[in-house]
User: What shape does this take?
Amino acid sequence: MDIDGLRIYHAGDLNWWHWAGESAKYNKDMEYSYKGQIDLLGNKPIDLAFVPVDPRLEDSYYLGIDYLMSAVDVNYAVPMHFGDNADVVDRLLSSPAAEYYRDKIVALTKRGQSAIID
Assistant: This one.
């Protein structure tokens, strides 16, 4: 969505849902579906993205944001969908997988928290 010259992406529940208890086929289908939707965003930069980082996915919590950040030029990303378990944001920030986009993460971890982004 474009607002006042800014391109904002809110994933809602769109994510690379990779569940440990699901079949390999199910998880592969979810990966394919997610990547297909992200690829539709095209090559226009996103100024601000809100992306699920869900601790219930265990070690796969970062797959969705990782793919988005590698496939699309995102200036800033706000992790969401973690409920009261904000530790997953710290996990992301310290993860080697996030090395190339760590400085683009806006870590809002408490309800009502805000940030100013230039």
In short: The mean pLDDT is 94. Strands lie at 2-3, 6-10, 46-52, 74-80. Residues 2-104 form one domain.
